[in-house]
Every structure is written in C-alpha cells, then in structure tokens.
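To: structure desk
From: M.T.
Subject: fold request, one chain
Message: Could you run this one when you get a chance? Sequence is below, nothing fancy, just the single chain.
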Amino acid sequence: MTGTLTETDYTVMLVLLLLLSAVGLVWLGAFLQKRNERPSGESIKAEKSANNGASSGPPLPPTSAEQIVKRMEQHLSDLQRQLNMDLAQLQASMKADRADTERHVVRVREMASEHKLSLTLFELFESLKTLPKKTQDAQAIDRAWHGQVGIEPDDVLLPSEDSDPWKIYFKLEGIWYLLRVLERKYSRIDYYEISLHDEDGRLLAEVRARPDVSRAKLDKEFVSSLHVGPWLSEFIALRLRMDHRLQRTLMEAASRDVDAMKRSFRILQVGKKVETASD
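Reply: Done. Structure tokens follow.
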C-alpha cells in the first residue's frame, strides 16, 4: 500500500464535504428563522416605551357601549339619591304630624277629664235608662228634674239581647242626641262603653266608664274617641249645671233642720207682745 491517494479516495472525500456543507446550511437556516421570530431586547424596550407613552397620553374615546353603561349608572345614582331624599322628607313630615297629633290627643283627653265628660255621659245613662219603667207621675218628676239642666228625655230603647246596646234619645238645649251604651264584662270587671252621636248619627265621643259601688263616681274612665266641636261646649255647660244642681240639692237638704226649727220655734207677734210658740 503506497502513500498516494487513489481516485476512489478523492471521490469519498468530496461526498463527505458535500454532506457537511448541507448539514451546515440546514443548521444556519434554522438559526436565522428562530432569531427572526424572537424580538430583540432593543425592540422589546422600544415597544414598552411606546406603550408607556400611549398610556400617559389623553384617554381614548369610550365606545358606545361604555357610554350607555356610564349613563345608566349615573341615572340610577341620581334616582337613588332622589328616592332617599323623598323618604327622608316623608319621615320628617310623619314625625312632625305624629308629634302634633299626640299633643292634640293629650290636650283633648285632659279637657274631657277636667270637665268630667265620661261621668256626665254615664249619669245621663243612669238617670234616663229607667224612665220607661216609671209611672206617669214619676216620669213627670224626672222630666222636671232633667229640665233644670236643659235635658229633655225623648225615647229609651231597651236592649233585647246582651249584645245589643241601650239607645237613649234626648235633647240638650233643643238639639237631638243619641246615647248608645254597651255593658262589657272582661276578666270579672264590668264597665260600660258609651258613645254619643248627633242627630245625623255621626260619632261625637266614645268613652269607657267603670263606676264604683255607689255608682255616683267612676273608678276608671278612658276617652277612646272625641271629635271637638260646638257640642262639646254644650256638654261642658251641662256638667256645670249638673254640679250646680247637685250642690244646691245638698245645701237644701242640709238646711231642712233649720226649716224644722223655724216651724217648731216660730216667733209670734200679738199686739205689742212678742212671745214664742212654747209660751
């Protein structure tokens, strides 16, 4: 074997060089393609700078959908604020109305209690309910008694059942009124529910009264309804006349012994001589 290269050796070497060149070209193409797909550091920085510049500039105009949403949110916010203001005004108005109404109720109840309205209505019921059961002479006496205070009895309708009310019609100073009275029993406590109506049937007052054993006074009373009007002045005046009549009757009863003494110890004058009846 000599040191010279044959033709076959040259051929093999040429093929190997061609193969190596092909592999190198393929690798180089892949490298360049990959480099083109990945941006460089400078391009990335430039892109970030461009984005920062865009964000710091004036905002882009909103789309039509964003405008609709913003208008809807603003409308709902304004509506909620308006509704809250309406509720606040209503609450303040109702609070003031409650305060005024409570003051009115307290004042009216104090006035009714001061002028004994419940007792007046109960006494009218007590004195008029037995009128139909009395004789003509007794009725005439009662009518004269009531006439002293301006009361003119007219008709008394007795209840046919326990659940039915008494109905007592009368005139006060020539004006018609109606008393409706129900006897109530609750937990072994008896009381009367008395309502006063005018000639048109309108409710004027409603009270609850529980008399004491003597039935001349009330243990408990409560005014559940009262419509202030000219009628109230008439019934206050009635109460004053009833109290005056009572005081006058008591005073006359207390002075009966004086009348008896006058009859027993009269001073007689005969001529110029004055002598007592015992003489």
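Reply (cont.): The mean pLDDT is 81. Let me know if you need anything else for the meeting.
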